[in-house]
């Protein structure tokens, strides 16, 4: 009988603690697409082409530098297969991204924002051009 009461108390107390009535706001998950160098990302009538990495002076992750550096990427934006814009995107390490500058396309249905250029450099590894990719955030 004592065992039965003990199990009942443990079960009830566990359920009472597990019931949390606070409301938590959950941020809408971001959809991130990986766009390889030289490839094109398509959404409806829009195409984003990652054309080139013009420069990459970011400080390697395993080194301490005075200046964090930056990477400059060249992107072309097409609508209905017609070039509407060529854009140089400057990503500076350690700085917040200005979404207005990184917005590649806006419509009533969606917004495409350039989020980052990866991989991040390491001191002992040289990044091959074909290994670069652009992270696109689609809202």
TrEMBL record:
Signal peptide coordinates: 1-18
Keywords: Signal
Protein name: Uncharacterized protein
Top-level taxonomy: Bacteria, Pseudomonadati, Bacteroidota, Flavobacteriia, Flavobacteriales
């Amino acid at each position: 009988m004592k065992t039965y009461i003990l199990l009942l108390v443990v079960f009830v107390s566990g359920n009472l603690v597990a019931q949390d009535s606070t409301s938590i706001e959950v941020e809408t998950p971001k959809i991130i697409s990986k766009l390889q160098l030289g490839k094109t990302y398509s959404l409806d009538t829009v195409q984003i082409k990652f054309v080139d990495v013009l420069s990459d002076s970011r400080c390697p992750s395993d080194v301490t530098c005075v200046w964090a550096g930056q990477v400059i990427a060249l992107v072309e934006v097409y609508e209905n297969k017609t070039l509407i814009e060529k854009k140089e995107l400057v990503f500076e390490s350690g700085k917040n991204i200005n979404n207005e500058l990184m917005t590649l396309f806006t419509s009533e249905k969606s917004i495409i924002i350039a989020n980052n250029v990866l991989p991040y450099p390491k001191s002992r590894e040289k990044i091959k051009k074909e290994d670069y990719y652009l992270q696109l955030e689609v809202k």
